[in-house]
Design a protein that fits this description.
There is one protein chain. With about 350 residues, the chain is α/β, with parallel strands linked by helices. The protein is about 30% helix and about 25% strand. It has helices at about 40-50, 95-100, 105-110, 155-160, 160-175, 190-200, 215-220, 235-240, 255-265, 290-295, 310-320, 340-350, and strands spanning about 5, 15, 20, 30-40, 55-60, 60-70, 80-85, 115-120, 120-125, 135-140, 145, 180-185, 205-210, 225-230, 245-250, 265-275, 295-300, 330-335, 355. The strands form 4 sheets. Strands 4, 6, 7, 10, 11, 18 and 19 form a 7-stranded mixed β-sheet that branches. Strands 14-13-12-15-16-17 form a 6-stranded parallel β-sheet, with helices on both faces. Strand 16 (about 265-275), helix 10 (about 290-295) and strand 17 (about 295-300) form a beta-alpha-beta unit. Helix 5 (about 160-175) runs parallel beside helix 6 (about 190-200) and helix 5 (about 160-175) packs across helix 11 (about 310-320).
Amino acid sequence: MRAAVLHEIGQDKLDVVDDMEATGFGPGKVRLRVRATGLCHSDLSAMSGVLPQPAPFVPGHEGAGEVIDVGDGVTGLKQGDRVLMCWLPACGACPSCKRGQTQLCLAGFMNAGTPNFRRAGGDVFGFAGTGTFAEEVVVAAGCAVPIPDDVPYEIAALIGCGVTTGLGAAINTAKVEAGSSVAVIGCGGVGISTIQGARVQGAAQIVAVDPVASRREAARGFGATEAVSPEEFADAKQRVTAGEGFDYVFEVVGRSATARTAYENTRRGGTLCVVGAGAMDDFFQVNMFELFFDEKRILPSMYGGGDVLRSYERAIALWRAGRIDLESLITHRVQLAGINDALDQMRSGEALRTCIEI
């Protein structure tokens, strides 16, 4: 079968091959035919080594498709079912799951260390235990979440990661209050979803911050009351909040420098929500006096900060009701053979989300 593979960490191009085999099928597993997958910035971060991932590997973790086979012991799924892929399934038994913090379950991360593809040269990993830049993939049954018939594959794929992450940061983690002021730094697919979450929550002012003009323009269409470049952010803070700072600032880049900017633009007693996934050697610093004196809440948000299955259902309900726009998040479409074009679109900031049609 065809798949896009990164041979070594640090390479900036993927190799589309036709001799890949999805492996590991057996009890508790399902084999999926991938129909659509989004390109998330985390895929680029794994390719560059910012996020740890063994190589060679097939990137992609934001996918949807149909079940083509189920292993022994699998219940609730059958051949032909339409599903989205959950890259971080909850085991239901660990302490995090028992506390209701299923997004912190580590069981899914264990899948990332087990190869689930093979070709003539040896074993190949799937990013985050999935690897959706392939025609087929074998995953644990918990990774395959049934979707209603009215949800297109490309919409379901986005809900599988970026939309859930962004909406959840605003709704679950920060719990944005109606009438509040919000700033979102980084307006790719996740940042735009964060903006939509803040709008759903009733934020009065939502300032989008991004260096790319086309993304700033797009942010306005998704609910931002204004959009500024990073250089204009200080002026926006003065104009919108009279210099006090925003009630909520979301960092959706994954870098300590932008996290520090977010902290400085959060009002005393306000909330900094860190959504971007960054590197292990990139340290965010605050001094002990300001941490105590300003009483700003620093809230990381992992995969939307809540139960992902409930978050999927909520995203679908909001989409059906017209409260969030998911179709317009997809600004580009390519076939698997054009995957490197999609990478360039992401790196340049040209795309919010590129849908790869498998």
